[in-house]
Specification:
By secondary structure, the chain is mostly beta strands. The chain is built from no helices and 10 strands. The protein has one domain: Beta Barrel (OB fold (Dihydrolipoamide Acetyltransferase, E2P)).
Amino acid sequence: MPQKRAIPFDTAGVELTCVVAPRPKIKNFQSGEVDTDRETGATLVMVGLVATLNGRADMFTVSVPEPGVPADLRVGAVVKATGLVYRHGVSDKGDRRPWEMFTARALTPASVPEG
């Protein structure tokens, strides 16, 4: 049985900036099939984010159900992530490869203090 873990990701004090615009998450590249959320059936999109904390920046990609992504989300926008979770495990397809991903329920515009 494959091992899977989900760790909530606390974004308090972290600035999340969109660096790759939303695009459909492809489930099967040969057929072009788009992946869907297992709970809602909504189309999943991938968004590239940079998390900045204490002068350190790390880039990651997050998978979000399409209704949870603002239609006007653009590169450079600062966002908040609701329900951000880091998931990792080992493939159950026979090759036992490790995998990891971030998921979120929604991204919303963050108010950025001026200064």
